[in-house]
Each structure stands twice: as structure tokens, then as C-alpha cells.
Amino acid sequence: xxxxxxxxxxxxxxxxxxxxxxxxxxxxxxxxxxxxxxxxxxxxxxxxxxxxxxxxxxxxxxxxxxxxxxxxxxxxxxxxxxxxxxxxxxxxxxxxxxxxxxxx
Length: 104
Hints:
Blueprint: H1 8-21, H2 23-30, H3 34-47, H4 58-103
């Protein structure tokens, strides 16, 4: 078979087609080696579409996903702390206003 590179979209379409029409027929139709197909499918099952990003090892892709998750959690924590600080500030303002009224 002639060596050819496939885009991420083509790989996704071929994986979908193979699940619908059968692996053998799909591989023959597109001229793909079984090893290549199963490697694509493994990457897709493990990492989703990110598995088809060239230039990154699976370990690097995993690290990116971990960092994205950590980033999301830190943003949520920051939002909670900002809300907490705002509520504390509002309470202090109300308390100060009440104490000021009592003094008058």
C-alpha cells in the first residue's frame, strides 16, 4: 500500500465508518494497514480527538489534560474565594453601618 498521511478528521471518519461497516471492508476501501487503524482507535479511545494531535507523546497529552483539569479547579476555587471575600466585605459594611447608627 502507498504511504499516506491522514488528517484528524479523516481518521475520525474512518474509525466511525469501521464501527458501522466493519473493519475489514473499511480498511480495504481506504487502503489502511490494520496496525495503523488499531493504533488510531486506541489513541481515540484513550485520549479522544486529542490523541490525533501530532508532535506530542501520549505522556505529554496526558500532562496537558491534567494541567487543564487543574486550571479549571483553580479557577473554580478562585471564584469561590472572590465570592467569599465579597460577602465578608458586605457583612463588614453592614456591621460598621449598624455600629455607626448605635453611636449616634
